[in-house]
Amino acid sequence: MNIKKIEKNQPKIFEFNTKNIELAKKIISNYPEKKQQSAVMALLYLAQRQNNNWIPLVAMKYIAKFLDMPYIKVYEVATFYSMYNLTPVGKYFFQVCTTTPCMIRGAYNLVNVCKKRISEKESEISKDANSSWMEVECLGACVNAPMIQINENYFEDLDPEKLEKIIDQTNQKEAPKPGSYRGRINAEPENSRKTLLGNKNA
Ligand code: FES
User: Would the CB of 142 count as within 6 Å of ligand 1?
Assistant: First the structure.
């Protein structure tokens, strides 16, 4: 279970760069007039991407002004959803799903690899500042369990050896290949297995 913590060392300044100001305006234009607050989740995500994958309090205040909404409402959204990081994370941020389907398929073996190769404690940045890891709830790819998310990509059908190789690659600053690590396309059955084809109503 992920408990949201707020970073103690907060930066004092945040504002969107030129590209993100344009993007934010474009996102807001998708909503009816005076409903600009509906863009809060997308703008928080933009802030996170701009700020090395975490959101400082000053960015929440900036977004509150940008959207003309109370700061506390932005804070509530940012602290509710697990996709927002409120403390710094590594350049490669490993989110290990440990909800039941992944857990019974070996998720805690993956957690042990993260402890051994990244840092003993969850949410602690590795000594080389390259990576951090965290346990998370279901990421919606249960059929390819166990799986992890690294930054914006999913890595599925894993085992400890495969995760070790992925970590080797990220340590070399290489981008590991996302998707199934047992050669499946999306969530297709393995070994061309077919079911129910002989069933009239299938
Ligand atoms: S339980 Fe792990 S992705 Fe759903």
Answer: yes
